[in-house]
Design a protein that fits this description.
about 350 residues, mainly beta, Immunoglobulin-like, 6-stranded mixed beta sheet, 5-stranded mixed beta sheet, 4 helices, globular, Cu-oxidase_fam, Monocopper oxidase-like protein SKU5, copper ion binding, Cupredoxin
């Protein structure tokens, strides 16, 4: 139950902390004003309902401007065909002086398979270019209108059978977790014996489905364009540790260089997790100014657990600890780095 005083405006933080399903959020007889997502102030738009995909968060303003009563708050699965009402989330908005319980049917949202609504809403969520966002200069000072793209990753997610087991893949490579964490292998052994840098394609498809440790190079202090292509029948969502995405485009079917003509480079929203619709693609930009070994993965738990991930190695030769601190002296080591440091044959 959420309690409100009549006439007051409240900020609600809505997060999808689930592991599989997108949901549509709405409040009976109340409109919402979208103001923020994942640390970025958005253009303020009024909504009757809001699609929230796995790993995403939003802030909305809600004004208690209705008759003093109780009202239903509902979250229902979207972009999937599910007829089980038991998985609907239902809560109550309670006006402080209300003596009337919530009544009537639950507020209706868009059809669960209404792709046009969902994509249209996603495209309407844009960066507020004039707000300060906790800094003396506005967000719009940082934009992507004239950036030079140094790399393009085209990452296709699909489900394959490898060694008799179902696995999720990126460009036909399903990630195999090594005994040595990639960052330790990179620091102590330059990856030797643990992974082969850029051994697998990041803009095409591996000839055969493979179970491997995929690590790709990201150019330090350069812009990378990442196109996520979803070849599955269900929604997907992607997250890159260490960076945020400028979400510049959504599309159906195959992505091609000509698809860039439809990009929004004027006021794309900046966020940490982005959805990818079944049979479609999502394009983002990221500025790789943070040296390190960064995980790029599906936020859907089953997909991630079964291999839909890779690592992006952003290397800077400058040893300045202000950029990247060296490992602490009491770091617990495992796998190949331990064998190097102790001269033991530890695997």
């Amino acid at each position: 139950m959420i309690k409100m005083l009549a006439g007051k405006t409240y900020r609600l933080r809505i997060s999808n902390v689930g592991t599989a399903l997108s949901f549509n959020f709405r409040i009976q007889n109340h409109r919402m004003v979208l103001v923020e997502t994942e640390g970025s102030y958005t253009q303020q738009i009024e909504l009757n309902s809001l699609d929230v995909h796995v790993g995403q968060s939003y802030s909305v303003l809600v004004t208690a401007d209705q008759l003093e009563s109780d009202y239903y708050i509902v979250a229902t699965p979207t972009q999937v065909e599910i007829n089980d009402s038991d998985i609907n989330g239902v809560a109550v908005l309670h006006y402080s002086d209300s003596e009337t319980p919530a009544a009537g049917p639950l507020p209706a949202g868009p059809h669960p398979l209404d792709r046009v609504f969902s994509v249209g809403q996603a495209r309407s969520i844009r960066w507020n270019m004039t707000t300060g966002a906790g800094r003396p200069n506005p967000q719009g000072t940082f934009n992507v209108r004239n950036v030079t793209i140094s790399q393009t990753f085209v990452l296709r997610s699909s489900k394959e059978t490898i060694r008799g087991f179902a696995r999720y893949t990126v460009n036909n490579v399903s990630y195999m977790t090594p005994q040595t964490p990639p960052k330790l292998a990179d620091y102590y052994a330059n990856g030797s014996g643990v992974y082969r840098l850029d051994a697998f394609p990041f803009a095409s498809v591996n000839p055969e489905a493979a179970l491997e440790t995929s690590v790709v190079s990201g150019t330090h202090k350069a812009w990378v364009e990442i196109v996520f292509r979803n070849e599955q029948e269900a929604m997907d969502a992607w997250h890159l540790d260490g960076f945020s995405f400028y979400v510049i485009g959504f599309g159906d079917g195959e992505w091609a260089p000509a698809s860039r003509e439809g990009y929004n480079v004027w006021d794309p929203v900046v966020r940490s997790t982005v959805q990818v619709y079944p049979g479609g693609w999502t394009a983002v930009l990221a500025y790789l100014d943070n040296p390190g070994m960064w995980n790029l993965r599906s936020q859907l738990l089953e997909n991630w657990y079964l291999g839909e991930e890779l690592y992006v190695r952003v290397y800077d030769a400058d040893p300045n600890p202000a950029k990247e601190l060296p490992p602490p002296g009491n770091l617990l080591l495992c796998g190949r780095p331990l064998s190097i440091l102790t001269n033991q044959n530890h695997i």
